[in-house]
Write a structure and sequence with these properties.
Two copies of one chain form a homodimer.
Chain A: H1 14-19, H2 23-37, E1 69-77, H3 82-100, E2 132-137, E3 175-181, H4 184-197, E4 202-210, E5 212-213, H5 242-248, E6 264-273, H6 275-278, H7 283-290, H8 319-323, E7 334-335, E8 338-344, E9 350-360, H9 367-377, E10 384-394, H10 407-410
Chain lengths: 416, 416
Amino acid sequence: MSAEEQGAHGRPSRRNLLGWGGAGLVLGAGAGAATALALDDGDAKAAPAAAVPFHGAHQAGIATPVQDRLHFAAFDVTTSERADLVVLLKEWTKAAARMTAGHAVGEGAFGADEAPPDDTGEAYGLSPARLTLTFGVGPSLFTRFGLEDQRPDALEELPSFPGDHLDKARGGGDLCVQACADDPQVAVHAIRNLARIGFGSVAIRWSQLGFGKTSSTTPGAETPRNLFGFKDGTNNIAGGETAALDQHVWVPEKDGPAWLAGGSYLVARRIRMNIEVWDRTSLREQEDVFGRTKRTGAPAGKLAEHDPVSPRAMLPTAHVRLARPAAHGGHRILRRGYSFTDGTDGLGRLDAGLFFLAYQRDPRTGFIPVQRELARHDALNEYIQHVGSALFAIPPGVRDAHDWWGRALFTAPAKD
Amino acid sequence: MSAEEQGAHGRPSRRNLLGWGGAGLVLGAGAGAATALALDDGDAKAAPAAAVPFHGAHQAGIATPVQDRLHFAAFDVTTSERADLVVLLKEWTKAAARMTAGHAVGEGAFGADEAPPDDTGEAYGLSPARLTLTFGVGPSLFTRFGLEDQRPDALEELPSFPGDHLDKARGGGDLCVQACADDPQVAVHAIRNLARIGFGSVAIRWSQLGFGKTSSTTPGAETPRNLFGFKDGTNNIAGGETAALDQHVWVPEKDGPAWLAGGSYLVARRIRMNIEVWDRTSLREQEDVFGRTKRTGAPAGKLAEHDPVSPRAMLPTAHVRLARPAAHGGHRILRRGYSFTDGTDGLGRLDAGLFFLAYQRDPRTGFIPVQRELARHDALNEYIQHVGSALFAIPPGVRDAHDWWGRALFTAPAKD
């Protein structure tokens, strides 16, 4: 154990052993904590203090059991030099591997006295908190850096949907990083350090904090409630459903392009909820709008949350009826959305809602047709407004310590 | 157990027993959870899932061990009828007592089908998470409702300090409620339901979410780090230090007015941190600015966080040196600040910082003289900006089920 891993009183502290020690210790402690916390955690199999492996065939943060908190950032690339961007992506990958393991960005934690610290320090002493960092590239990146030929056909700006009230400042982005963790300080620390490392090459375009998960990817777990007080997206794809993930989430090699095989597409929508109007609506109206019982989350006419949906038991405009996979050729998406509250608007209303995040194999068969239908007919539209929108391609996992975010893209041979 | 406390599968769930069942169960489960969580919790004696008693001589949420998350709201009173305001305060108190015990606002949880639900529902199934709701009144309230004579001399708008860049929309307020909990969904639910109940009588003027506590009120606990990566406010008043609380936090009867005896004063300051500038400053400069070692939190020249401060070991402009009680006649304040990150500003910088909350017996001997000194000389001023400000008087505790927030104030005899 190095000097910087000593506790405040000059001896190794429990917190340091948990958070900034070796990976073996981290996992050991995490497994112990899991049992105790399961009482209060929808994803009972998750170990809140543990580290999630960074390397693998797919990026972590997609099929990973959903963590409690989110900090999401979209970046503009401000350098015009491809080489600078590649250097940054290598540095980011190295930092991400360290932070997700519960380490400081730099090996000496704070580095030399004369230099800015290698790590900003606010997560020093905290556990890894199951931090995952998931990296993506937006359509706008492909107009520069010689990447024109590499843009997948599916990666184009989402179409306008009826009722959209999009704020350009809350949408788009050349790159994105989704930081999820069970401790918000750990997620915020990660995004802030990536932004710091990227100074001069990238700048944050917009970012979003999520304080409560609204989805579960653990089979049989109760779905967390959104700010309308409802369980929504009950029939999510579970992290262990390999066949469903292969069919609906991961981009197969045959879909192309080659650099995206094993990756995915991420749709991000900032959905403002008209909380004050909703709160003055009757329980019956609320349940009719969703097509679910508020108390149990059961679909209309059923008893339990996970009972199958009976479309005929609900109104034609019910949210669940319109959004169900059976109405869309069986295509499914994996949801990882979070509730947000960003203070109050100029009219004294809470600026609150759902930051919708969904992973899918192809947005043209995933989000887009479902949203076309919802935007036209969903009874929920009276109470929500889509105010931010972005689409990103999510490369496959970083395979080992030599691999880096975007390597396959930046080393892909030019077409023809 | 009533029907609404059944779990999703029609049987009583563990989550419901924890959160929405009887108080005995709540406390029992909480005590068990505390042991397991202490590993990762600065306030080792706190039981994260348990309920904090609502009734008492002082309001909870001041000397209570600091919870992990905050939602703070300031309200304008929009009704001009004193009677409406009194009715609201009674309703608020009843709802606060229920929510802090882990119950829904209404006894039937969601109420009748034909009416808007008595509770918005997003905390249904969650534990009380040590929720506290702390109520205060601002100077502006005393210009109306026949309260002119009741304003304490100490309750006037804070003076301007050099360097203040206050946004009026982020300051002031007739009333305030501080919601602290170990689960942000529980804190947000509480503020949202109070705002809902208050519709027509009050409106949220501004609100602030805090995602990470920066203070501890537990003796010997490590101080959490702020977004500069430092431990600050190490020598806080602990929740059990009865003599220090009596001397520095609670308003004694002899200070007056009578309705405030056993209460306190709360200073709230939104302090934006220039994160990007700070992150490019050398470790030595950062440590000189605070007068503390970044790694351990030890004061300059010392080894451990809780070692006594040696002013001569640090620069005359060091934050710790200027702020220490010994430089201010021994007057102390109780800090309960939280880190915030509210997305990104128009220049791509994180809108992040410290939401400073401090309780004291009298702001004229507490916050004001310390801030006068800091505003003039603190080396930290290069990296921070005060952008929001408010002062509230915090009435004493609600004594029992017949008492209500502000009762002593609204029933005080006029001062002829």
